[in-house]
Design goal:
410 residues, alpha/beta, Alkaline Phosphatase, subunit A, 8-stranded mixed beta sheet, 3-stranded mixed beta sheet, 17 helices, 13 strands, binds zinc ion
Length: 410
């Protein structure tokens, strides 16, 4: 990373109403990232060294941005959508996102840290393709595919039913070395059903639920603030609460597998509010940067944690359809329901000790959402296929993070 890019990074935040403290922390993170990059690169060499590997205990943090399009992830604000008054009543509101390096302005952490030290996939304009394989291309089927490794025909809508399938989170939580080391936080209220809390038993906090895992002054304050802060959405709390609860849980409970599922992007998109959708993406990128910084400042996580960032589904690929996904019901009964084209396209970003810095990865065959469950398991040293033989295999590039002697037979 050179000085020019650092200046670009500063500029992108100078236009944001962030606190100067956060800004300083981010700069510190960028600096640390530069220092740590050679360490990450030489991880495979370090793994062979038993003296080093004995201290290594892999962790995975999975972050999702609900319904975040690959188009904005890789290219930033879309000029055609931005030019339409029905989506952007006040163009000045997003003017600063429409020039310069638009992708880096929208998601600086993703492009300036993850892309340089890890990998990204899903830029379809550059032969990098990742897809959901479930045909519904809505949230519950997407999260279910992502977390269970299979696209189950029984999971075809967003109805609140307990998932009959066991997620990789639930299965890993049953492993002796992982007990009390698995947790999930989501802005959308459906995660207790998607992860089948009744059966799985690990800690899940979602929607507008109070945080109940433990209590302290900060948690009491956050619970109160959450109750007293209105959300624009009926089923989705504001992402800052998901982030803050997850951050406090990381600090105190030290999970080895954590889901942090943000939701605002999808809801603002459905509302056709393009500036708010972009702002939600920008905030999420900032929250992820803060999460990564927290992980790298904690010896329990530092250089042992893989961060995976992805989404549950794509959205329409045109200025007319970007706000929607899945099957669009036609009001005129004479026409058939219409599948929104492009909503199967998703993206993934990854950074961690066993991930080589590859930048954008081109794909011969599209990567699949259902491969993520096995990938998570493999990164933690377990073989999910031994339990769920129907799950898709791990993504080939995700080599086991743990040295052989630390891998635990499930
Ligand atoms: Zn949606």
């Amino acid at each position: 990373m050179n000085n020019l890019q650092l200046r670009d990074y500063d500029l992108s935040f100078a236009t944001n109403p962030r606190s100067s403290a956060t800004h300083m922390l981010l700069r510190l993170l960028m600096f640390c990232s530069m220092l740590c990059a050679p360490l990450a690169k030489s991880w495979s060499a370090m793994s062979a060294n038993s003296a080093t590997s004995a201290e290594f205990e892999p962790k995975v943090v999975l972050v999702t941005l609900d319904g975040m399009r690959w188009q904005e992830v890789f290219y930033g604000a879309d000029d055609e959508i931005a030019s339409q008054r029905r989506y952007v009543p006040n163009p000045k509101q997003i003017q600063q996102l429409l020039n310069g390096n638009k992708a880096e302005k929208l998601m600086p952490f993703l492009h300036q840290v993850v892309k340089k030290q890890g990998l990204l996939v899903g830029d379809q304009r550059k032969n990098s393709v990742m897809q959901v394989t479930n045909p519904w291309q809505v949230s519950y089927p997407g999260y279910s595919e992502l977390l269970t490794g299979i696209a189950d025909p029984r999971i075809s809508s967003n109805h609140a039913i307990n998932n009959p399938n066991v997620s990789v989170f639930e299965w890993l939580a049953q492993q002796p070395a992982m007990q009390d080391k698995v947790a999930a936080f989501g802005s959308w209220r459906l995660f207790p059903w998607i992860l089948n809390r009744e059966r799985s038993g690990f800690f899940i906090n979602a929607g507008f639920e109070n945080f109940t895992a433990f209590t302290n002054d900060k948690i009491n304050w956050l619970n109160k603030l959450q109750r007293q802060t209105p959300s624009p959405f009926a089923d989705v709390r504001q992402d800052i609460f998901t982030q803050q609860f997850a951050s406090e849980y990381l600090q105190q409970a030290k999970p080895r597998l954590l889901l942090v599922a943000f939701g605002e992007t999808d809801d603002y998109a459905h509302a056709g509010q393009y500036p708010q959708y972009l702002a939600a993406a920008q905030r999420a990128d900032q929250l992820i940067a803060e999460l990564w910084q927290q992980l790298q400042q904690d010896p329990y996580y530092k250089d042992q944690t893989t961060l995976i960032i992805t989404t549950d589904h794509g959205r329409g690929n045109s200025a007319d359809t970007w706000s929607r996904h899945g099957v669009s019901r036609q009001l005129n009964a004479k026409t058939t329901d219409q599948q929104i084209l492009g909503a199967d396209g998703i993206w993934l970003a990854m950074i961690g000790p066993s991930i080589a810095p590859r930048g954008l990865v081109t794909t011969n065959e599209p990567w699949q959402q259902r491969q993520i469950a096995s990938t998570i398991s493999q990164l933690l040293g377990y073989d999910f296929l031994q339990f769920q033989y129907k799950a898709a295999t791990a993504l080939a590039w995700a080599t086991p993070a743990a040295p052989a002697q630390l891998r635990i037979s499930p």
